[in-house]
Amino acid sequence: MHVNSTRLRELRLARQWSQEQLATVSGLNLRTIQRLESGAKISNESLRALAASLEVPAESLLVGSSETKPGQTALKAMREGVIAGLEFTGITPRADFWWFALGVVIFLAFAKLLSEVLGTLPLQIASLAVLLPWLAACTRRLRDAGLSPWWQLISLVPVAGILVLLYLLTYPTKDLDSVDASSS
Question: Are 84 and 62 in contact (CB under 8 A)?
Fold first, then answer.
């Protein structure tokens, strides 16, 4: 995840804080603040600390949080789901997850069509190719909903387990403040 360095700098300057003051208030290192204001990647812990100290939603500090154009949301969500494919850390918002899920279904449907012509191998390869990205996306989505990623194990229960998991994946995004309060 990359921080929106311009927004971070604007929020800091709006409070008339120096980088040192922001580092002190957020509990981060001064060098970390300097790197983030130059557009470096940000960890979940640093993102939460900055969001809490600046009193803004964590998502508003990330690149692309306010740059989405209508009509590009679906393709952008599918592309980001593929890019974040093996990343089990972080979160995936509900809408982005379901767009990614639609992309997986379309990919598997295409593989099924190919398997009608070429045998079962294309579908087997496609299923293996989407397995880890699907598990990673479910992990990020459950974390976004404030649930443990271990809930994915319920899908091992035939039929009912998969339905319960799909229901859990529809939970709304949990506020970072309430997640922090419940973990304390």
Answer: no
Q: Which of 75, 89, 87, 105 is nearest to 166 (CA)?
A: 105
End-to-end CA distance of the chain: 25
d(CA 46, CA 61): 11
Percent helix, strand and coil across the chain, each to the nearest 5: 70, 0, 30
pTM above 0.90, yes or no: no
Q: Determine how many CB atoms are found less than 10 A away from the CB of residue 45.
A: 10
CA–CA gap between residue 127 and residue 111 (Å, rounded): 9
- 141: pLDDT strictly greater than 50: yes
Question: What pLDDT is attached to residue 64?
Answer: 67
Q: Give the CA angle between residues 83, 35, 11 to the nearest 5°.
A: 95
